[in-house]
User: Which sequence fits this backbone?
């Protein structure tokens, strides 16, 4: 199977999962718990918004045709109230921000631009019709769909759902993501490893990443590097909505993940991507479940989840869109890499995100270096040398 570039691998993941996914079941939950969940039914406005023309300033509601001039103040209106009468020629109503525009008025003049003289107000400047008024329905019309099914709800969506009266929200059930660590050298977190052993960190970083991306992680016991043990563990993992394996996908004698998946009838879409970390990287489908065989080095596992597996999880979760934003930042020092591969390196962004500095690291197992980073630097495959001050892509951590 040919190695894919990073862009090709991402397109493959997006294309395959979009085409082959089944949307999760739907559940109804309270609005308070809906942030971060994926909306399962279009949400429409229950009325025009605003429902009345409203003032966006404190001042006077007037008829623009009367200005400039001296007007008679016939009353006041504040937010949460409405003015019973109607403005006639030469009249004004004192108005507060958010209050409904009295009938007859077609503009609001800011209080700072007026001079009150007893029961009259002097307004020296003209005003255009509509000034400082949000007309009825300018934000949304009744029945207009405002958030579409398939959107992962953020706090602004929560504001919107609250504003349109959705105390309960239909969302997709979170997909269960099985996490299967492999390797004879791996021991559990609570164990004391021998010098030749390593604690299982990948299962827990992946569980955290899965939860952050909207899935329910299900961490399986470590699979030993034998065909029998790995087969049973993978068969169990394939019962989830998505399966993430860590380790066992290189070309070593004890890397049995790929042959076992093949034996279980898996379809493979790629098994090598021109990225570092993460060259041996398997993506496919077996028994209707998409799976990723992520390389076992901790840095590789974490990065490949973010740049490829997360997109699959988001689509499996019912999201319509998934995005990997890689904005540009200016390098604070010269930087060179081998080229040929798209490289993701630990880096620190300054406050504001305009400048980036690589974080020195001892390679793919250097977890401490990664914790000192707050972003990844993304070096392009066709470019080996970047000078200080040049722009380079970055990816938020
Ligand atoms: P592998 O991809 O199986 O060759 O694993 C590569 C290296 O990643 C191993 O030698 C371990 O050092 C490390 N590794 C594999 N699995 C884990 C894990 N679950 N937690 C932490 N490190 C791991
Ligand atoms: Mg291994």
Assistant:
């Amino acid at each position: 199977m040919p190695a894919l570039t990073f862009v090709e691998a991402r397109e493959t993941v997006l294309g395959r999962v979009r085409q082959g996914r089944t949307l999760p079941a739907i559940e109804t939950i309270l609005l308070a718990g809906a942030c971060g969940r994926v909306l399962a039914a279009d949400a429409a406005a229950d009325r025009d918004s605003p429902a009345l023309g409203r003032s966006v300033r404190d001042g006077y509601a007037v008829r623009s045709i009367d200005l400039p001039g001296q007007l008679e103040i016939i009353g006041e209106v504040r937010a949460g109230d409405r003015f019973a009468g109607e403005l006639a020629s030469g009249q004004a109503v004192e108005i507060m921000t958010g209050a409904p525009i009295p009938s007859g008025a077609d503009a609001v003049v800011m209080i700072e631009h007026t001079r009150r003289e007893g029961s009259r107000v002097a307004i020296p400047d003209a005003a255009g019709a509509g000034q400082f008024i949000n007309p009825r329905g300018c934000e949304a019309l009744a029945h207009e769909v405002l958030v579409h099914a398939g959107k992962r709800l953020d706090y602004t969506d929560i504001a919107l759902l609250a504003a349109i009266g959705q105390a309960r929200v239909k969302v997709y059930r979170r997909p269960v993501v099985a996490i299967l660590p492999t390797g004879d050298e791996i021991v559990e977190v609570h164990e004391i490893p021998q010098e030749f052993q390593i604690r299982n960190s990948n299962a827990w970083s992946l569980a955290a990443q899965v939860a952050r991306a909207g899935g329910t992680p299900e961490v399986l016991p470590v699979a030993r590097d034998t065909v029998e043990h790995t087969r049973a563990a993978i068969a169990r993992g394939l019962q989830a909505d998505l399966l993430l394996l860590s380790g066992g996908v290189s070309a070593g004698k004890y890397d049995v993940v790929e042959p076992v998946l093949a034996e279980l009838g898996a379809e493979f879409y790629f098994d090598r991507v021109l990225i570092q970390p993460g060259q041996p990287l398997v993506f496919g489908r077996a028994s209707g479940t998409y799976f990723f065989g992520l390389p076992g080095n901790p840095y590789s596992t974490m990065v490949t989840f973010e740049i490829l597996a997360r997109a699959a999880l988001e689509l499996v979760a019912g999201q319509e869109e998934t995005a990997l934003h890689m904005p540009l930042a200016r390098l604070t020092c010269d930087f060179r890499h081998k080229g040929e591969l798209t490289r993701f390196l630990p880096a620190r962004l300054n406050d504001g995100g305009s400048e980036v500095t690589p974080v020195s690291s001892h390679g793919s197992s250097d977890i401490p270096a990664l914790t000192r980073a707050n972003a990844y630097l993304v070096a392009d495959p066709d470019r080996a040398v970047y000078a200080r001050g040049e722009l380079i892509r970055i990816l938020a951590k």
